[in-house]
DNA sequence: CGCTATATATCGGAAGCCGAGATATCATGG
DNA sequence: CCATGATATCTCGGCTTCCGATATATAGCG
């Protein structure tokens, strides 16, 4: 079952493959680039994720190429993978929105952060 | 070190605590509610996350109450926790956006999904 | 009295992450 | 000619994290 939420690593692999088929090493670079360096997918993580996504039917081996003597194994999204990515993107966007709203609300009416509970005066705290 | 990206579970716990202090069981219900049932934080996961977040200084024990004979242990965000949540929310929003853009781009110009590569006829295969 | 809801917490197996290393080609630099 | 680094694959083992199951306890419903 792929209805359960996926891991962060799986999400970014699917995102990297969403526009075009890519090979392992290319996915690594693409994830780093599309997240502006914020997300660093590790080599040791990649192949496990690739195997799991394949087993779940979200990606498939597209083709194998030899580029300058080096083997490249390209993967691509399946329709299920595309749909799963959409669902997860929706879920993440909603989560991010909820968090941002609450942070903004907390700035307007402090109390969630700052001192233990009741305590007049001094509204500082978050820089 | 809390500079590394946090787990999904940790993110939703922080989000649940962003507007007001809550106790464990309340966090469980709040996460389910704010995600519209899409995210189900498990009891077995919760206390480990709470311990880790406390150790990382992102949350602290706010107070303990006894409500109808039952103990309630309330946690609240620290300024660091609030900031970490903001950073992670930003990262998630960016990731979700990137995924959505690629999905939309793929719909305009198919090829990422569908058949292996060049190859007319027969588009079946994956159900 | 059993069931459900509320509320805490622990344990252990399973799943996932990731540093490190193995293997191989090609280009660059010394 | 060899070292180094980038490209490219993959495996292994330890650590972290997840989560189902279990334990304990109170209150309310049927």
Report a brief summary of the structure.
The structure is a homodimer. Chain A has about 130 residues and is of the alpha+beta class.
The portion of residues assigned to helices of chain A is: 40-55%
Percent strand of chain A equals 5-15%
Pair of chains with the largest interface and how many residues each contributes: A-B, 55 and 50 residues
What is the helix/strand order of chain A?
HEHHEEH
CATH topology of chain A: Arc Repressor Mutant, subunit A
The CATH architecture assignment of chain A turns out to be Orthogonal Bundle
Sheet having the most strands of chain A? 3 strands, antiparallel
Q: Look at the helices and sheets of chain A and give the structural class.
A: alpha+beta
Give the end-to-end Cα distance of chain A, rounded to a whole number of Å.
Answer: 44 Å
- CATH hierarchy, class of chain A: Mainly Alpha
Mean pLDDT of chain A: 85
How many DSSP helices of chain A? 4
Quantity of strands of chain A, as a count = 3
Return Rg of chain A in Å: 20 Å
Explain what this protein looks like in three dimensions.
The structure is a homodimer of 127-residue chains. Chain A is built from four helices and three strands. By secondary structure, chain A is of the alpha+beta class. The first copy, chain A, has one domain: Arc Repressor Mutant, subunit A, CATH 1.10.10.10. Chain A has a three-stranded antiparallel β-sheet with strand order 1-3-2. In chain A, helix 1 crosses helix 2. The longest helix of chain A has 30 residues. The N and C termini of chain A lie far apart (44 Å). The interface between A and B is large, with 55 and 50 residues. The structure holds a DNA duplex (30 and 30 nucleotides).
């Amino acid at each position: 079952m792929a209805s359960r939420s996926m891991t962060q690593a799986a999400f970014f692999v699917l995102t990297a493959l969403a526009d075009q088929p890519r090979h392992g090493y290319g996915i690594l670079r693409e994830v780093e680039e599309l997240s502006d360096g914020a997300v660093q997918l590790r080599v040791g993580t990649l192949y496990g994720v690739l195997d799991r996504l394949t087993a779940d039917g979200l990606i498939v081996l597209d083709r194998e190429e030899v580029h300058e003597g080096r083997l490249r194994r390209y993967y691509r999204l399946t329709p299920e993978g595309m749909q799963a990515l959409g669902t997860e993107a929706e879920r993440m966007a909603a989560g991010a929105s909820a968090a941002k709203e609450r942070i903004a609300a907390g700035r307007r009416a402090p109390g969630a952060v700052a001192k233990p509970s009741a305590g007049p005066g001094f509204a500082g705290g978050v820089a």
